[in-house]
Amino acid sequence: MSRTTLYIATTLDGKIARKDGNLDWLIGFPNPDQIDYGYEQFLSTVGTTIMGKNTYREITGFGVDWPYTGMNSYVVTTDKDFIPTTPDTFILSTNLKDFVNDLKNRNEKDIWLIGGGKLIASFLDNDLLDRMILTLIPVTIGEGIPLFPDITKDTAWTLTKVERFETGVVNLTYDKI
To answer: Smallest Cα–Cα separation from 136: which of 14, 27, 28?
Structure first.
């Protein structure tokens, strides 16, 4: 059985993007040695990605090849007119909880919840998230999209790993208790 993991960068003030979805604070963060902060190792454990429509649009707007070719990607949206333009990408508009639990039972590789904020809250409120790897970027941006907007359910987590990088970035890994 696979796990569902949120692997996401966040600011010190708990934002995952600016109000308009912009990630300039992340893209512009100094990283002269091109440290990947554990991304490639994490990606090797993933067989499926799930993201919201705005996150999908942000990723496809980077002007690079689709980074998740070879694995199924699901875009959660209620927009009936939305059509993904990338390979192995499907719309998910059915019962999220049943779908994710079925995926977890059918897959050996893990499921990566990429974002965004509302979808993260839905995963937490529906008890669908098993692990969080938060890449804490040492910047504050003030207004923006919060990492955990409007969560309605308490969930206890235990810190299982801390990785500090020379850039000041820290990866915090939490597993659900």
So the answer is: 14
pLDDT at 63 over 90: no
DSSP 93-117: -S-HHHHHHHHHHH-SSEEEEEE-H
Phi, psi of 103 (to 5 degrees): -60, -45
Domain 4-176 class in CATH: alpha beta
CB neighbour burial string for 58-74, b if at least 16 within 10 angstroms, e if fewer: bbeeeeeebebeebbbb
Which of these, 35, 4, 13, 47, lies nearest to 136 by C-alpha position?
13
Among 158, 131, 173, which residue's Cα sits nearest to residue 38?
173
Side-chain half-sphere CA neighbours of 158 within 13 A = 3
pLDDT band at 104 (very low <50, low <70, confident <90, very high): very high
Question: Residue 14 pLDDT more than 90?
Answer: yes
Whose CA is closest to 141, among 45, 29, 42? Answer: 29
